[in-house]
Design a protein that fits this description.
The chain is mainly alpha-helical. It contains seven helices and four strands. This is Mos1 transposase HTH domain-containing protein.
Length: about 170
């Protein structure tokens, strides 16, 4: 069983496509091809719909096995530039940041989460400022006053955070 798993993990897309082309040239149908490859290379190494896609390409005379170049927004995000943009203006929205970086807002959001940032009160702040500290008895409160945060750990009798104006 371990060898099946190792084989599955080591097969590249191109290697799977070579196997599909081999099965196609043997005259097997899509189901047979997927079954043959999965039985020798590991369960679920090849979904049937992927085999169907490649068999359609082969039937149309396209025997190219390599991925075509992709166009559109880059998948990479310049994390250093993202940090710099957030430090300069924490009020920049996801869409605005995506425009600056030339990528999707989903990619920007993913990297902001990885950086430990969260969107609160119209600004990007470190996520740790939202959690309680020391036994949960102290409350860390954030109040935005002209771009500055006032932190407090004192509470009134009702458990509400006491905040003093800057």
């Amino acid at each position: 069983m371990d060898t099946d798993h190792e084989l599955k993990m080591n097969l590249s897309r191109r290697e799977i496509r070579v196997l599909l082309l081999h099965e196609f040239r043997l005259g097997h149908n899509v189901t047979e091809a997927a079954s043959n490859i999965c039985s020798t290379m590991g369960e679920d190494v090849l979904p049937t719909h992927t085999a169907q896609h490649w068999f359609n390409r082969f039937k149309n005379g396209n025997l190219e096995l390599d991925d075509l170049p992709r166009y559109g927004r880059p998948l990479e995000v310049d994390v250093d530039l993202l940090k710099q943009l957030i430090e300069q203006d924490p009020r920049l929205t996801l869409r605005c940041l995506a425009e600056h970086l030339g990528c999707s807002y989903v990619a920007v959001e993913k990297h902001l989460i990885e950086l430990g940032k969260t969107w609160k009160y119209g600004v990007w702040i470190p996520h740790e400022h939202l959690t309680a500290t020391t036994n949960g008895s102290a409350i860390l409160s954030l109040v935005m006053r002209s771009g500055c945060y006032i932190l407090t750990t004192r509470t009134d009798a009702n458990g509400l955070a006491l905040v003093r104006q800057a």
